[in-house]
Structures are given as structure tokens and as C-alpha cells.
Amino acid sequence: MKSTLITGLAVVNELGDVVGDSVLVEEGLIAGIGPRSRFTGMYSLEYKFDGYIIPPIVDAHLHIRSLGLNIAGIDLRGVSSIEELKGKLRSFKLQQVGLVYGRGWDQELFKEQRWPTRWDIDDVVSDRPVVLLRVCGHAAVLNTKALEMTRPWELYPNLVHRQAGHITGLVLEDAVAYVIERLLKEVNIKPFIVQALEELSRSGIAGVSSMSCSEVEFRALEELASRAGMLPLRISCYPDYEKKCCLGGGVRGWVEIAGLKIYSDGSLGARTAYLREPYSDEPGSRGLLLADRRAIGRALTEARRLGLRLAIHAIGDGALDEVLEAAKATGVRGFRVEHASITWDEQLDALRELSAYAVVQPRFRVSDWWIDRRLGPRVRLAYRFKSMVRRGIRVALSSDAPVEPFNPNETIRAAMSECEQPSCFKEEALDIRNVLLAYTRVAAEASGGALAGSGVLEKGYHADFTVSRSNPLWDHVIEPLEVIVSGFRASDVFKYLF
Ligand SMILES: [Zn+2]
Question: What is the structure's pLDDT at 312?
């Protein structure tokens, strides 16, 4: 049998214990862990690293397609005129991709004091579709080519801007997502996807849950995985519950539909997260309940019937009440609550009772610098990671990239409350051992699907590891040297993706 030995300065398992310096890999699985001398003569290939072999870092909630677009797209933040925007378009070349994508412009900053139009963009690019997202993501400007390809006026006549009867190229709200999805169907999005995977792998990430995964994204991943026989990281997809796309598809162990995603409320930033009591800075409003207990209950039952895990977006305490009632009524356990940003003690107890996963994004602590205005004294209820872990709730860490940076060190710092914003409570800080557990084994468990059997450094589990120059237990930081999946170096796997 062909075996590989992976050797480092030390092997640190998901509990933070040093268990040797070498891992023997057979058929993609861990066959043994211990001192290198124990494996003499048992392997034909050895990878030696001047770093620590740790369990695979798994980001349990991010968005691959948006991340790819963001990485490959033109950054238009801070652009101060339409002329400057045109200049950026001109200097941007992405020949391999048939779509020009940009994001971050804000017409308030333009010295022309007007919205950009399709004619502005046609001046620079007219042969390929162009879509440029406003900084908020709720508006976009398209060139004529992109408009002709997507014809958004047919479906969303009220969301397509007109001036003196002429379509200007500006589209709003639902029409934005629609045109992007349509354009991505027409062009080859694999370069976007591969770029996202490269960046993730380079930062030490060996697996992800891709939330609200679209059909286009899933098919691209599926095609990449079947061509190479594997991927540089394992991907568990959670398409939206209403769409239920791609069930039964994928490549086992590499890209799978692990569950479905449903939204029960919105966000704190937009005051659409659903609270028990009104917002402190908008006393007339409790936010928006997008799915009540009955709708959530139906989704829980349907997901169970399909053998899938339900991931329920619930940020406000009011939304979480609905989730908990739905779970009690249906008897479904082991579902995921995404964000669980505001929680009361009895809600945490109920989550524990239901064996639910809390899939949290510590980096929100940093971005929500205004959170005390929204919540007033209830800010004490925000991001209670330590309270969750102490109760025995299965807490999985994640970034929600591209909403937040996917760099694991950003997540680790925020999880350990190494920040100054109003919700960075020291008493809710996770210690590094719990961070490691939540970012590896529990994140893999919560992801399920392609990540089942990953995240644990024991015999019989997938030979998946992150290799870090520093020992995260001492330094609280990961300096990625390589990601190993099924005993292969991720950097080698990329060579076979195209
Ligand atoms: Zn998200």
C-alpha cells in the first residue's frame, strides 16, 4: 500500500494536545499519529514541514461565489468621479473571464454629482457585459451589452431606472441579484471560483460551508471536482430552501449538498433583525420576521425528510424564539442556527437541549461598532461565545466572507475578544483551545456533507490538516504553510483544476 508520512515540528490535535510529530496517511485517511521513529519503513513518500500540523481549519459559513467575484472584481471603493471609474475599467483586464465585475462605487462621492449610466461604461467596454455594484449592493449599473443579455425590465419593470423614457443602465434591489445570476450563467465562472479557493487555501482553510450556494456555483464546483477527482478544500453547500437546487449532485467528499438555508430575519445594521423588544434607536420597530415558527417548522420537517440539515439564519432574539418554538413543535434536532447574535440564557439552554449548532461570526463584533445604539443595555446579550461553549452548545466559527474577511486570524482575535468595540466583552472571550475546537472539529461537524469525517486528528478520519509556521496554542495566530487534504498538498491539487 502506498503511504505518505507528514512530518512537522509537532502534531497538535483539535483538543490542543501535542500527540506526536508525524502522521501516517493511507488511502487518504489517518493511519497513525506519533513520533516519526514509529513509522520507519512504513511509507514511500514524506512531506516535511518546518511548522505545526494542526487540524484542518473549516470556515462554517461563507459565500464562495460572492467571494470569488469580490476577489476577481474591480475595487471601486472611494472612487471620486465617473471619469476615475472609467479609468479603473480601462486599466482592468481579466481576459479569461467574459464578464467585467466591479463593486464599491458611491455616487455621493462623484464630483459629477450624478449616477453613472450605461453610456459611461459603453465608452470603455462595449463588447463584454459589465456590471458594477454600488457600495451597498442594492444598486448596480450595467453596460448596454449586459442589459441586452439579461433584459431585467421584463421581470422587474419598476426596478430598472429610466430617464426620459430611456433605460439608463441602473438597476435596483432584486433586479441586481437577478442580472448577476443571469450573467454568471452565460459566462465561465470557474476562474472566479478557483480564485476564491486559492485565497482560502492560502490562508490555511481546508473546508467551508458555502451558504446560499447557487446552481451556477455548485455546477462549477462539481465540474472542477470531477475533472481533478478532488478539490483543494472540502465544500459543503447549503442552497436556499426555496430553490432546493442540485439535490443529489456533487462529488462525494469534495463538494456535496449538505443542507438547506432559510432566513428567519434580517440584519442589525439594517434594523431588520427581529427583536423581542423594539430597537433602542428606533422605538417603533422590532425588525422584520421573514419566517415565523410555522414556516420554519415546515422547513425543518422538509429538510429532515430529504436527509439534509437545515441552517436557519437568526440574528435577533425574537427570531431565535421562533426557531426554538418550531424545533420543539417538530421534534427536529441538530439543526444549525446561523449568527445567533443576540441570545438570552434560556434560549441558550434550549439550543443545548436541541443539540443545535451555533454557527457564529466573531468578526461581527468588530464591524458592529454601532451595536450598543441598536440594542442599548441588551448589548450584553450579543455574541455570547463563552456562555454558549460553557453550556455545551456546539459552537462553530466562521467568517461570512465576503461580508467579513476570511483570514482566520481576524476571526481568532475577535473570538478571543481582542478588540475594543462595544460587544468585545472579555467575559465572553473564548480561550485558544476552544477557538481551535470550534474552528476545526465542530466547524466540520456543523458543515456535514463533504466535511463529514474531517476535523479530527485520529485514526480513520480524513487526512486533512492545516500546517502553520507558528503553534496557534502559543501564538494565537495561524501562519499557513500548506493545507493538506486526503494526504495531498492543496498547492499540488490546484495544478489539476484546469
Ligand atoms: Zn452569510
Answer: 98
